[in-house]
Amino acid sequence: MLTRLIIISALSLLLAQAVYAQPNNWMKKTSPQELGMFVHAGEDCSQINLSGVVATTLVEQHVAPRDAREQDEVYIDVRTLCIATDRAADSYVFHVEVFFGRHHPSYGWIYFDDPYRSLGTGRTGLYLRAIKQQVEFAMADYAKANMITEVSEQISYRGL
Q1: Among 31, 63, 50, residue whose Cα is nearest residue 138
Q2: Is residue 160 a part of any domain in this protein?
Q3: What's the rounded Cα separation, in Å, for the pair 38 and 115?
Q4: What's the structural domain count of the chain?
Q5: Which pTM does this prediction carry?
Q6: 159, part of any domain
Q7: pLDDT (tens digit, 9 = 90+) per residue, 42-91?
Q8: Residue 53's Cα: distance from chain center in Å?
Q9: Do 139 and 153 contact (CB within 8 A), yes or no?
Q10: What is 62-87 written as a DSSP string?
Q11: What is the SS3 assignment for 57?
Q12: Residue 57, CA distances (Å) to 41, 62, 104, 129 in order
């Protein structure tokens, strides 16, 4: 019964429109061809190589991934929650949230409340595509803010 409730909730939320960030001055970097990243996966999906998916997506967008803790500039933060509904069938309910943050030497970690979100249910492949898609949406705005034409021209479609 709980599984059905989770799946119905997830499907109803899929119909809602996601909120996307717009390029802002805080996204600008002195070296935009490098971007720190932080990736956190929920316990049920910890065996999936999410860092590899995010790093590959950044490289495809002509941006070199770095450890977010190595810099004081803007970084991309990818957090996921994943609940296995049927491990044998490789089925999950998942929530993906991608946002930008900045480490400030005096104040610590600052998160910007303009996330790119996805919620769904399905197999691992769908979960990974949702992560890739939200990272691509975030990178399109990052590219616009930093005038990286290769990325902003490639990703102009914002719908699902």
Answers
A1: 63
A2: no
A3: 14
A4: 1
A5: 0.74
A6: no
A7: 878 777 888 999 999 999 999 999 887 666 678 899 999 988 888 777 88
A8: 10
A9: no
A10: T-EEEEGGG-SSEEEEEEEEEEEEEG
A11: helix
A12: 17, 9, 26, 11
